[in-house]
Amino acid sequence: MSGKPTYEELEQRVNELGKKVSQTKQTEEALRESEERYRAIFEGAAEGILIADIRTKRFVYANPTICRMLEYTEEELKRMSVGDIHPQEELRNVIFEFEAQAQEKKILAANISCLRKDGTTIYADINTSKVFIDGRECNVGFFSDIAKRKQAEEALWDSNEKLTALFQSSPMAIITLDPDGNVTFWNPAAEKMFGWKEKEAIGRFLPFVPEGKKSEHHALRNRVLSGEGFHNVEALRQKKDGSDIYISISTVPLKDSTGHISGIMSVTVDITERKKVEEALRKSQQIIEGIINAIPARVFWKDKNLVFLGCNALFAHDAGFADPKDIIGKDDYQMVWRDQAELYRGDDRQVIESGCPKLLIEDPDHTRREHHHASYEQDTSAQLYGGD
């Protein structure tokens, strides 16, 4: 027969009960503080948060941010389901994404269209996690408004479309290379200029660089890969049919999002005809110089400011120069006949202003002719047209 508990036993039991009550209160306080923290996070989150029952797809909770995003009140959203906030034509895909997330097959549903209360559409990335709330399986969706990103993507797409149109319609050959020198872009002008079709050029080393010019090409390519672009560098290359082509090349390095050089872009102009004209002009100048230097008289020509533009070998020799080019840019005041400079400049100015040649000029002092060692008693001057 058990006796009555002693005073000490009763006191011990009371103390133990008090400890349990205290622990319960501490637990309740901790739960309350935890709930407050989560509520503060939930309500203060920059992302919109919607919690939906997985089975019914109805919304259980909505935070203030999602209410602002969709322009509904929390109470209105709690009376709605997943199908109510997405366009009808997108609903099949939305439900597929929702169920895949519920089965934890994926976390992110990207670029999902959502309907506001006024019927306008916004786009969001939705990340989810699965939780149990009041014994129900729920999807917690975190909605990130991607309007700015969509605008940036659309602007980038528009810019790319314009650049593509520009590259495709450009009369200049536009070519891009990877760091190894293989072709990654080849526009129609490049096809026309060099003869290789785009499909023949893409993925291979520049086809128009002949074997004997590869070292030159590598040196230019290495300049660009080191960050140094160049402009209007002239080079001799070869077409598909084997004929030579002179080109003028301008390049810039291409950089990726991290700033590292990821390739090269070149703009190329066919200057073959210009080079032919320059060569013909050079030969013509050589012929003219030969004729002028063969004339047994002193010949010179000036601009309208009476500055020498050139002369023949005899005139240069008399003026004290070994090469006719040395007289270019000088005037009579810099010649050995500087004391008579005004006289000769007056004759030259009269020819320029009147537009008429001056023939058989009397020179009683023989100053310029003596310095020129001239054998004639008269000078002859005429205006050259076509120069300013």
Features of this protein?
single chain; Beta-Lactamase; 4 domains; 14 strands; elongated; alpha+beta; 5-stranded antiparallel beta sheet; 12 helices; 388 residues
Itemize the secondary structure elements and their pairings.
Elements (H helix, E strand, L loop, with lengths): L6 H38 L3 E6 L5 E4 L1 H7 L3 H5 L12 H12 L5 E8 L5 E13 L2 E10 L1 H23 L3 E5 L5 E4 L1 H7 L3 H4 L12 H12 L4 E9 L5 E12 L5 E10 L1 H23 L5 E3 L5 E4 L1 H6 L22 H14 L3 E5 L4 H6 L5 E4 L7
Antiparallel strand pairs: 1-2, 1-5, 3-4, 4-5, 6-7, 6-10, 8-9, 9-10, 11-12, 13-14
Strand runs, count:
14
CATH architecture of the largest domain: 2-Layer Sandwich
Helix share, percent = 40-55%
Biggest beta-sheet profile: 5 strands, antiparallel
- Run of helices and strands: HEEHHHEEEHEEHHHEEEHEEHHEHE
Q: Give the low-confidence spans.
A: 364-380
| Portion in strands | 25-35%
Determine the mean pLDDT: 84
Shape: elongated
Q: State the end-to-end CA separation.
A: 138 Å
CATH level-1 class of the largest domain? Alpha Beta
The side-by-side strand order for the widest beta sheet comes to: 2-1-5-4-3
